[in-house]
Amino acid sequence: MRAAILRTYNEDLSIEDVAMPACPDDGVVLRVLACGVCRSDWHGWTGEHPRVKPGQIQGHEYCGEVVEAGPNSKWKVGDLLVAPFILACGSCPACREGNQTICVDQRLPGFIEPGAFAEYVAVPRDFNLARLPEGMSPTLAAGLGCRVTTAWHALTGRAQLAGGEWLAVHGTGGVGLSAAILGRALGAHVVVVDVVQEKLDHALSLGMDAAVNASEGDTAARIKEITGGGAHVSVEALGIPVTVNASIHCLRPLGRHVQVGMPVGHTAKQEIDLNAVYMSNLAMFGTRGMPPHRYPSLLGLITRGKVDMSPLIAREIPLSQAGAELAAFNGPTPPGVAVITDFTR
User: Fold this and answer.
1) What is the pLDDT of residues 179-233, one digit of tens each?
2) At 238, is the pLDDT very low, low, confident or very high (cuts 50, 70, 90)?
3) Other C-beta atoms lying within 10 Å of the C-beta of residue 102
4) pLDDT per position as a tens digit, 97-125
5) Nearest to 138 by CA among 339, 317, 345
6) pTM of the model as a whole
7) What backbone phi and psi angles, to 5 degrees, belong to 130?
8) What pairing do the DSSP bridges indicate for beta strands 120-123 and 166-170?
9) Is 313 helix (H, G, I), strand (E, B) or coil?
């Protein structure tokens, strides 16, 4: 099969012919129909993600068709499935409590085992997978990947965002734009923050209430003015110190900060204003991924027409352009996300 392989950090991926994956006893082999290109992949491509090593096939936002099922699989050949990027064990205390995102024995295709920047991918523990809803395109399903699922759980499973509250979203890349769209669907008032005016304009065109260009002054002060005292919930979607602190400072007393952006490599340890947390009685939540049992709540919202996530998908690309998409994350990116849909070139 064809696969895009990370051979050297910060260089284009190598398109190679490799062996087909073996089918796990408790899983499936999927023919990959679509795979998103995510900023999390970029962290691995640059060498900042500690688990991603040269030789890795990346790609963790995938949708595919079952071409082989193991003897202990619940699926059959021909099923169309979507996957969370964390494949939980299902039996540890965290899993039994429904908190699969903190499973002590996670499997992570695309990070420490072969992922979906390839024609086929092996998926163990396939009880984590969900059936693609009828009428939903594989491209959109792959675009949901880790960004939409992560955003949904951040808002509803962690911060408990309520209708009528103000939501601030710092960074309007894939996960940030997802959080903004979902926040609006939940009935919140949404203010988005970025340094790329084109992305802010795109978010406003989707119905966001306000936009702040972070390059033009004190972001937190401007959000407090817009919201009449500060956001109730603030999502940080980049993982860098300036946006983390802006997210904390823009909150009203008793506000909730949700750390969605991945702080790895040189940003893994950073200074934050704990005095602001202390004085305003703020709550701080970390979040990563979404438990698979929450797929119906998200997919149902989409299939019933309560929210349109299609504006998230900006472009469809061939496998050979995956490396160029990763390199684009080195600078400001245009609105929307890229999804690999052609694995033949």
Assistant:
1) 999 999 999 999 999 999 999 999 999 999 999 999 999 999 999 999 999 999 9
2) very high
3) 17
4) 999 999 999 999 999 999 999 999 999 99
5) 339
6) 0.93
7) -130, 150
8) unpaired
9) strand
53 CB-near residues (< 8 Å, 6+ apart): none
The alpha-carbon radius of gyration of the chain (Å, integer) is 19
Residues 6 or more apart whose Cβ sits within 8 Å of residue 191: 166, 167, 168, 169, 208, 209, 210, 211, 212, 223, 226, 227, 231
End-to-end CA distance of the chain: 12
- In residues, how long is the chain? 345
Q: Which distant-in-sequence residues (6+ apart) come within 8 Å of 272 by Cβ?
A: 241, 244, 245, 248
Compute how many other C-beta atoms are within 10 angstroms of the C-beta atom of residue 45. Answer: 27
Annotate 56-77 with DSSP letters as a single string: -B---EEEEEEEEE-TT-S--T
In angstroms, rounded to a whole number, what is the distance separating the alpha carbons of residues 227 and 210? Answer: 9
H-run or E-run covering 210: strand 210-213
CA-CA distance, 175 to 169, in Å (whole number)? 10
Residue the block writes with tokens 């704990």:
274
Q: What is the dihedral of CA 251, 255, 258, 259, to 10 degrees?
A: 50
- The pLDDT confidence band at residue 266, using thresholds 50, 70 and 90, is confident
CA angle 324, 325, 329 (to 5 degrees): 110
CA atoms within 13 A on the CB side of 82: 29
Which residues neighbour 97 within 8 Å (Cβ) at sequence distance 6 or greater? none
DSSP at 147: H
Residue with tokens 């699969």: 100
Give the pLDDT band of residue 290 (cuts 50, 70, 90): very high
- How would you label 216-250 residue by residue, b for 16+ Cβ within 10 Å and e otherwise? eeebbebbbebbeebbbbbbbbbbeeebbbbbbbb
**H-assigned helices in the chain:** 39-45, 93-96, 138-152, 174-185, 197-205, 219-227, 241-249, 274-279, 295-303, 322-328
